[in-house]
Structures are given as C-alpha cells and as structure tokens.
C-alpha cells in the first residue's frame, strides 16, 4: 500500500472513532486517549494528523463541505432557484444534525470562525443567482455572503430545535428577511410550497377541500402528474374492453389561480433536500408533500408475467391493452389472471364487447369474490356460467410465455393475457427509506404523515391503512389530510385521533346491465346494483371539481 493511502486511511479511522465517541459521550466528555484507543493508534499518530481535539471537529465540517460539489451534481441542485438551493446547501451541511445536534453546531461554528471557504461558497451561490436573475445585479458578493454566514452562525448559536427541518425553517426565515432587498421580482417570496405528487382520487379530494379559499396566502399549491387530467382508474376495465372511450374516464383538474400544474413522471423523492426529481425535468422543491403515486402490478415472482401480460393499472397501459384486445381476430383466447373486482369487471365487460372470444378467468380461491356474501358470490359465478366465461378455480399461475401460461405447470394457450392478480405501491414509494408494512405500504401516524416528518403525508394506495386500498378510502383519507393541514395552518390543536374512515360499500359491474355490491349490510344484485354504480360514477364525474 502506498504511504499516502495508508496515511489517509489512518486519518479516516481517527475521524470515524472521534465522531462516534462525540455522538455517544459528547465532545467535552471525550478524551484524546479514548479516541486513540477506539482508532487503535498511538497518541503520536493522532497528533501527526490533528494538533488538537478541537481540530477534529473543524475537520468533520471541512470534509462535509468538500463533498458539497458532488452532492450538487448527484441531485442536480444547480437547477434550483436561489432560495431553495440555499436551503439545500444548509440541509446538506447539517446532515448529522439529528444524530448529534451539539457536535454539528460546534463543528460549523468553529469552521465559520476560522475558515473563509464557506464564505466563498455563498459568494459562488450569489453569483449564480445573479446570472439566473434571481438576485439583483451589481451587489457586493462579499457583503451578502457575510450576511448569510452571520445568520448561519447566529442560528447555530441560539437555535435548540430538535429536528433539522425545524432548524432550517428558523434559519431560512431569518435569511429571507435580510435578503429580501436583493431578491428580484422573479425571485422568491417566502412562500411555503405544498406539493402533491399524483392526482388520483385522494389528491382530487384534497384539491376540492383546499381550493379556492382554504389555502393561506403564504402557501403555494403544486400538483405533479403524468397526465393533464384526473383518470377514473376504477373504470379502466371498460376502456380496456372497448365499451368506453378514453374521454369517458377523464376528469379535468380544477382551473384555479392558486393551483400550479406540473406534468412529468416522478423519478425520486429526496427527503433530505426536500426535492421531487422528475424524468427529464427540473426538480421541484417542497415544504409540505403529499404522496399519492398509486399502485402498479405485482407479479409475485411469476416468470414472464411482467413481460407477456397486459395491464389496466395506468392509462398508458390500459390503452395498450384496449388496442390488443380489440384487434384480436374472432375466436381468440383471452386469459384474465386474478378474479378480484378488477378481473371480474374486465371479464364481464369484455364478454359483452366481444361475444366471439373465449374468455378464461383464473381464480386462486375455491369461490369467486369470497369477501362478499355467498349469495352475491353465487350470483356472479352464475352470470359467468350463463355468459360462457370459464372460471378456473384453485388456479396457480407458475409461468407466462408469449403464447400462453402455465396453470399448475399445465400449459394453456392464450392469444392475450391480462394481469389483475395483485398490486403494490409505485416503485418510487417502494424505494423510499421509510418504515413500511408487509405489503410495502408506508406506515403513518394517526394524522396520515410520516412518523419522523409531519410535513410528508401519504394518501391512497401507498398508505398502510386498516382497509384494502380503494378509491373511496383514498377520498376519505384525502378529506382528513386537508382538515389536518387547515388546522395546522391556523395554529389549532390537532385531535389525538381522527375518526375512522367510513366506507359506504362496494359496487361492481357485470357488463352494462347487471351488477353486484354491498351497501351497508345490504347485498345487491342485478339491474339495481348496476344503476346505483352508474349514478355514483355520474355524480363523481360531474361534481368532483371545485
């Protein structure tokens, strides 16, 4: 090993040992002797690298500072406007704040007292702001960099907030007041930004409850979605079967001055820097975040299922499914895997749309729709028998190929296979480093936010709740989230627990003329159930705006 590499490794061992001891015992209660023993080096080696114990603290801050440029590149922070970028810098510097507040405070205060490198970073940031027209031209970079540093130092000295977010809020409020005179018109008021990712059923209910008059003047509402309209996902089965047009399952987003619409695909949620990264777009910063990204198919490890099946989990995939099904030649075989509500509705709607097709519906259980009363389950089974849909009970799909699937290892040819056999939260949510249940849904507090961040809420299919995901559940949750936000903005005390979300019932379709469902304790079948569902859909489509 080269001498310089070994020296660097020894230095890092000392730093790691010191940082661990400082966290566990405090800076003042840690001795050089304890550091050398933990690092397994002699005192002479220690002093070759660090003249004093105090210098270790400064080095920890310096090392963090040297990693800043890499952090900026990794998270594309250069694209942010001035104030969100400044906040992101502070957030990165304070990465250890919640693990050891005292060490973080003292390390940065020491560095600000003895080194001008932080000052140069603020000058660079201000200069970029001038080029981007966020900062007024011809200002003294050194003067305003000193203002930023002085506010950072002051907040480190006096702020005793327990969380990094609370510390940053106090710091940014102070900075904004001082910098207001050099922020351009294009620059930024000290607005708080409420960002919703996903305009599903829960998101639409939140919009309905907050717009147009329930947002505080200092809160900006931003909705990020892939599509320029809300989609009635519960009706995708009809679009796939060809009995409804694309237009019939759309609902426009509200047109309100207080609502900013951003269209794009969410790639990553960066909680540390409060950024939403979009594919091919600039990141969006947030102060409050509502995650409503919905779900996608879960293939349970079945080989070929993700490659050789069609889906009705997104508008884009449903359109492809519709095209494939409606282009099938007469007497083609269609296999629907999964006999839950989606599989049942798709199979029945497809039967009405194409009476020339041979349709198989694969059900893992012995009885179709076992969660419903037996009379209702029998009614659905009889409808399928009468209409020549082959329900294959106790199925186990072990493999899927381009021209068919294996049920208990028996190959069954198929011209099209549609997967409705389970869902999981969106991949972005699955990648979040937060506590989740056994279905990968995010565990929340009683108030629907993350246990470690009261500014991040989760609504709909990604939330771990007592009931199975549904549009109705997402709407009820969205209503409660809106009420919590309004209380917080008004400074009102939150209730210890929110009332349980009451679900009115479930309604399903068997084509356009028959249906089934449960409303309260009443099981419904036939035309009445279908008419009720049609009425609910009509009301939603024409009264979901604000």
Automatic annotation (TrEMBL):
Keywords: DNA-binding, FAD, Flavoprotein, Oxidoreductase. InterPro entries: DNA-bd_HTH_TetR-type_CS, FAD/NAD-bd_sf, FAD/NAD-binding_dom, Homeodomain-like_sf, HTH_TetR, NADH-Q_oxidoreductase, Tet_transcr_reg_TetR-rel_C_sf. Its cofactor is FAD. One of its GO terms (molecular function) is DNA binding. Gene3D superfamilies: 3.50.50.100, Tetracycline Repressor, domain 2. PROSITE patterns: HTH_TETR_1, HTH_TETR_2. Pfam families: Pyr_redox_2, TetR_N. Residues 31-50 bind DNA. Residues 8-68 form the HTH tetR-type domain. It comes from the Bacteria. GO terms for biological process: aerobic electron transport chain. Belongs to the NADH dehydrogenase family. This is Transcriptional regulator, TetR family. It comes from Salibacterium qingdaonense. The lineage of its organism: Bacteria, Bacillati, Bacillota, Bacilli, Bacillales.
């Amino acid at each position: 090993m080269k001498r310089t590499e070994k020296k660097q490794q020894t230095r890092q061992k000392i730093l790691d040992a010191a940082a661990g001891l400082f966290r566990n015992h405090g800076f003042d209660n840690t001795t050089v002797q304890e550091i050398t023993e933990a690092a397994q080096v002699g005192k002479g080696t220690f002093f070759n690298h660090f003249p004093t114990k105090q210098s270790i603290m400064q080095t920890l801050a310096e090392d963090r500072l040297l990693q800043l440029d890499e952090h900026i590149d990794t998270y594309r922070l250069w694209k942010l406007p001035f104030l969100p970028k400044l906040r992101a810098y502070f957030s990165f510097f304070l990465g250890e704040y919640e693990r050891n507040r005292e060490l973080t405070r003292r390390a940065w205060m020491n560095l600000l007292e003895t080194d001008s490198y932080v000052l140069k970073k603020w000058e660079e940031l201000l200069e970029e702001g001038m080029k981007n027209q966020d900062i007024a031209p011809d200002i003294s970079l050194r003067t305003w960099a000193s203002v930023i540093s002085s506010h950072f130092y002051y907040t480190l000295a006096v702020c005793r907030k327990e969380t990094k977010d609370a510390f940053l809020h106090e710091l940014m409020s102070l900075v904004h007041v001082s910098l207001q005179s050099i922020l351009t018109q294009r620059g930024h008021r000290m607005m708080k930004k409420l960002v919703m990712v996903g305009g599903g059923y829960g998101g639409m209910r939140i919009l309905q409850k907050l717009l147009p008059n329930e947002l505080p003047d200092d809160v900006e509402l931003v909705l990020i979605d892939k599509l320029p309209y809300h989609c009635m996902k519960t009706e995708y089965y009809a679009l796939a079967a060809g009995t409804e047009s694309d237009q019939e399952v759309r609902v426009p987003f509200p047109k309100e001055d207080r609502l900013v619409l951003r269209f794009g695909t969410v790639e990553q949620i960066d909680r540390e820097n409060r950024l939403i990264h979009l594919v091919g777009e600039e990141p969006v910063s947030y102060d409050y975040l509502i995650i409503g990204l919905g779900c996608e198919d879960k293939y349970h490890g079945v080989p070929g299922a993700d490659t050789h099946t069609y889906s009705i989990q997104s508008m884009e995939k449903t359109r492809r499914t519709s095209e494939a099904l409606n282009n099938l030649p007469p007497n083609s075989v269609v296999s629907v895997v999964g006999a839950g509500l989606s599989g049942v509705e798709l199979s029945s709607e497809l039967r009405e749309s194409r009476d020339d097709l041979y349709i198989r519906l694969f059900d893992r259980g012995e009885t179709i729709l076992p969660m419903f009363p037996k009379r209702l389950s029998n009614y659905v089974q009889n409808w399928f028998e009468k209409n020549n849909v082959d329900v294959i009970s106790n199925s186990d799909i072990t493999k899927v190929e381009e021209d068919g699937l294996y049920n208990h290892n028996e190959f069954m040819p198929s011209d099209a296979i549609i997967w409705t056999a389970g869902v999981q939260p969106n991949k972005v949510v699955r990648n979040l480093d937060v506590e989740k249940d056994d279905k990968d849904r995010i565990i929340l507090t009683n108030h629907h936010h993350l246990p470690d961040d009261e500014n991040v809420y989760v609504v709909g299919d990604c939330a771990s709740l007592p009931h199975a995901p549904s549009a109705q559940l997402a709407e009820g949750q969205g209503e409660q989230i809106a009420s919590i936000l309004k209380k917080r903005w008004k400074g009102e005390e939150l209730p210890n627990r929110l009332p349980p979300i009451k679900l009115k019932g479930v309604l399903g379709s068997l084509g356009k003329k028959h249906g089934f469902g449960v409303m309260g304790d009443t099981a419904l079948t036939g035309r009445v159930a279908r008419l009720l569902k049609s009425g609910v859909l009509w009301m939603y489509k024409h009264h979901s705006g604000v």
